[in-house]
Write a structure and sequence with these properties.
The structure is a single chain. By secondary structure, the protein is mainly alpha-helical. The protein has one domain (3-91). The protein is 85% helix and 0% strand. The chain has helices at residues 3-11, 13-16, 18-37, 42-59, 65-91. α3 packs across α5 (65-91). The radius of gyration is 16 Å and the shape is globular. It starts with a helix and ends with a helix. The model has no long low-confidence stretch (mean pLDDT 84).
């Protein structure tokens, strides 16, 4: 995403308000939760893993704080997905 596009998104009144930030955060957390707890067959899990690795490699080319935060969020989602699966599989 170019700087001008990012700046235009940041200038939107909805995103600059406290409520807008909270709504965006809730939507993001809900989406992450759906990825973390979604049951997948091994083949589908492999596709998700390959897609995640590709996303990490593409995002790592760019520089900036936003990309660093996005990579940290993706890493957290992948780690939490593994922990959820490990706990769920072990306790069943």
């Amino acid at each position: 995403m170019s700087t001008s596009t990012r700046e235009r998104l940041a200038r939107l009144p909805f995103m600059r308000s406290r409520i807008g930030g909270a709504v965006a955060s809730i939507i993001g957390l809900f989406a992450a939760l759906m990825v973390i707890v979604a049951p997948l067959e091994p083949e589908d899990q492999a596709y998700l893993a390959i897609g995640g690795v590709m996303l990490f490699l593409v995002a790592n080319v760019f520089r900036g704080r936003v990309v660093t935060l996005a990579l940290a969020a993706l890493s957290s989602i992948v780690s939490l997905r593994y922990l959820y699966w490990r706990l769920n599989d072990t306790l069943d």
